[in-house]
Amino acid sequence: MKDTEIHITKEVSLKNPILIEGLPGLGFVGKLAAEHMVKELKAQKFAELFSPDFPPQVIIEKDSTVRMFRNEFYYWKASGKEQNDLIFLIGDTQGLTPQSQFNICSNVLDFVENYKTKMIITLGGFGVGHLSKNPQVFGAVTNKQMIRDFKKYGVVFDNKSGQGIGAAAGLLLGLGLSRGMKGICLMGETHGSYIDPKAAKSVIEVVKQYLKLSIKLDDLDKKAQETEEIISRVEQMQKTQSMPQMPKDESSTYIR
Amino acid sequence: MKDTEIHITKEVSLKNPILIEGLPGLGFVGKLAAEHMVKELKAQKFAELFSPDFPPQVIIEKDSTVRMFRNEFYYWKASGKEQNDLIFLIGDTQGLTPQSQFNICSNVLDFVENYKTKMIITLGGFGVGHLSKNPQVFGAVTNKQMIRDFKKYGVVFDNKSGQGIGAAAGLLLGLGLSRGMKGICLMGETHGSYIDPKAAKSVIEVVKQYLKLSIKLDDLDKKAQETEEIISRVEQMQKTQSMPQMPKDESSTYIR
Amino acid sequence: MKDTEIHITKEVSLKNPILIEGLPGLGFVGKLAAEHMVKELKAQKFAELFSPDFPPQVIIEKDSTVRMFRNEFYYWKASGKEQNDLIFLIGDTQGLTPQSQFNICSNVLDFVENYKTKMIITLGGFGVGHLSKNPQVFGAVTNKQMIRDFKKYGVVFDNKSGQGIGAAAGLLLGLGLSRGMKGICLMGETHGSYIDPKAAKSVIEVVKQYLKLSIKLDDLDKKAQETEEIISRVEQMQKTQSMPQMPKDESSTYIR
Amino acid sequence: MKDTEIHITKEVSLKNPILIEGLPGLGFVGKLAAEHMVKELKAQKFAELFSPDFPPQVIIEKDSTVRMFRNEFYYWKASGKEQNDLIFLIGDTQGLTPQSQFNICSNVLDFVENYKTKMIITLGGFGVGHLSKNPQVFGAVTNKQMIRDFKKYGVVFDNKSGQGIGAAAGLLLGLGLSRGMKGICLMGETHGSYIDPKAAKSVIEVVKQYLKLSIKLDDLDKKAQETEEIISRVEQMQKTQSMPQMPKDESSTYIR
């Protein structure tokens, strides 16, 4: 594997799909929100993405089987006539290098373009450094017309804080723009140092109303707990286990 | 996007253009100077450069729309018969890796070569570690003949300090040399730790006289303030917002 | 040399070979175990692997000749009718960058696939932070059916600790999976800060029984000592000898 | 420039040339020695090597002209019938990344192979951490037969210290070996923290006798001083001048 690869595991045909991205990021808000939606909507997996810029490790599952780090694509078929089908992008990690972020996002866009995706919703956290009782949802868009549509659902468009959007949540919008895809990033207000199911809830509330989806939210705290477990496993994995003995920046600690 | 891309947004025909580069660097002297000239000369944008070695983020503009990090090309048509047309290269950032600096500069030179550019003026700061009331402008050239031309306007050619020139301000000259382009780097004396509109003014004074341009300078302090705002936004962006969770050098701080 | 290269030094024909990997890693458990087996079984070298992502150095042998850092392939022909032939992968080092790990492992799999390898056993250490009198052997597999086969020999499948497997020991399994190769990683319980021949012994015990091999173990402590010498040579090499003068992360210490 | 480039500046025809490498390294022993030989033998430049893995900067010469970082090839035609012609490889720097070391050395070998080079002598320092009144010269070879030839001139082949050889001085030998080139690295005993003309002298003494060259040595201290100046210029260059504003590892110090 010398470049990013997407393996299609199920051929599907989708109607006006919208891409919803929720990869690991600040407060794991996007990941929690997207994974909760996948679960509640019973979305089905149809493709997996692997990259040589993911951590060079395998994950050991609870049943002692191993698997590669990956991103996954799930689809959901709308029942309502006016609804869009959905593609979810979730996963364990993002690319390790700045350049790989561009590469992986370009691959994702190539892939969803095959399904004639015209809109992208990316989900993330907005770090404020303190806990919020009722986390607001901040928005940033690829064209101004979208602001009105989302203000209806309480999204705050107020960039006096001068923030930007990093990694997939940002690049998918920026790179999608030049392909004629419109997009919005919904960012749940979050502390920044904790996994934040509350912020994820706020974000889902917006998506749910905008897309007229029926999604229960009471399970989200449990979901948050599961996520915390997985993350702590991955974290430990990185600390304890057999790394190659000569990592670039620690060549002086070669052996012990 | 796997490599640097230049998107032409307007087809133009230019007469003996000179490339003037002012990307972010020491004291933001080059950036301030070139952007001020673009504004005062009402130069028009005709191309944008994107690179997978720019930061993997999007910038949120004040109107809540997002855009990619980019470099921009502006052109200015000379009115005087003896004057050269000008191409300005300005932008948000430079390549993140040493190798990408070579790649991006080579792409820039390929591009301006299409317009038969024969001369390059790069603008930057010359760090002295203290504030100067009347910042001098230091010069370095690709051939000695140019020294006389610029000494007239007070440029100091005195390399006893043994400095070099990093990034685009240096590489465009070095790489341009082997393509038969002559060039000069004009470096405004600057502290090195502050945004320095005064040094930018000194640099513009030289360019203005050499190219016989009419450029007002009184707005530059205001421009400096705007630049400071943008930079502080970008800076904050890098500190606060949703970075991917596993940056290479901080894998131990994976989650919190 | 711009990419990983495998040089075949002897043409061999193998019957249902199993790949056994033991490259440097935690406690050098895998390296010690695999090299001991190579020696005791009198396995023969048939190929060498070189990579531009190995350390940019040569090793000086005791007779004052130099050689490149390398990985080596050894083969062993089974005498028993029901036994599998074996391919051993051992070596000085692993790739220096995350991405090169994927690249090198893919090259290894391409190579052993030529010999119709259907199974992979990777050997490593499992860090516990303390010394164990009787080190356990932990296992992780690519499919659940293998668990039963290895439980027989005392391998513990108990992933409550939430570990992962880094570098070749993990990636060969993960990448092999999508090529239809089954695999297991056997990890000897080890402190993590010392070379551990005891853990290597435990790992060999399992492999030996599973593959019905006749391997003496009494030499292993001597082997451990030799390994320690080699590693300490390599370690010193990295500290004392003529590194290029401008390593990326220490550009400020350019000369002294 | 996306890859290493070698520009031939003069077509020459050489008889059984030997490559002598002296690039920057420990104590600048190799660089000092090779440059002194180039000067004393009045060797002529015939090619230059540029790489996108050299520092992304230009050097300002004393006459205020700029030039790229480079390596240079010089040739010397033997007058004696039995003597070999010589190719010298000297320069400002080596590649910044481990991988680029392999790439650049492979390019060098491709180049000298065109001239049917069959032997390589690389020059470097051997760090001992203290000053030596009469620095010994240590050797490492690609085949044992060469040991006898060089022992005659006092070269010590005694690898009990367990050292290796990094960068071009090592890789040229290792990579040359598989091309059928024989080679030796001559390492002058040096402190490791200072520029060391004495060690360079010792190294030249060996080369001189082995190749029956007439080279004066009294200028070497002066040469050392010049080298010190150049290096200190380069060093300062790296500290003071206009680096791009967002280096990878200091993104948090973005602006001031």
Describe the structure.
The structure is a homotetramer of 256-residue chains. Chain A has 6 helices and 11 strands. Chain A has 256 residues and is of the alpha/beta class. The first copy, chain A, has a single domain (5-218), classed as Rossmann fold (3-Layer(aba) Sandwich), CATH 3.40.50. In chain A, strands 1-3-6-7-2-8-11-9 form an 8-stranded mixed beta sheet, with helices on both faces. The longest helix of chain A has 21 residues, at 220-240. The two termini of chain A are 31 Å apart. Mean pLDDT of chain A is 88; it is low at 241-256. At the A-B interface, helix 2, strand 8, strand 9, strand 10 and helix 4 of A face strand 4, strand 5 and helix 6 of B. Strand 4 of chain A pairs antiparallel with strand 10 (164-166) of chain C.
Outline:
The structure is a homotetramer of 256-residue chains. Chain A is α/β, with parallel strands linked by helices and 256 residues long.
Based on the model shown, name its key terms:
8-stranded mixed β-sheet, 11 strands, homotetramer, alpha/beta, Rossmann fold, about 30% helix
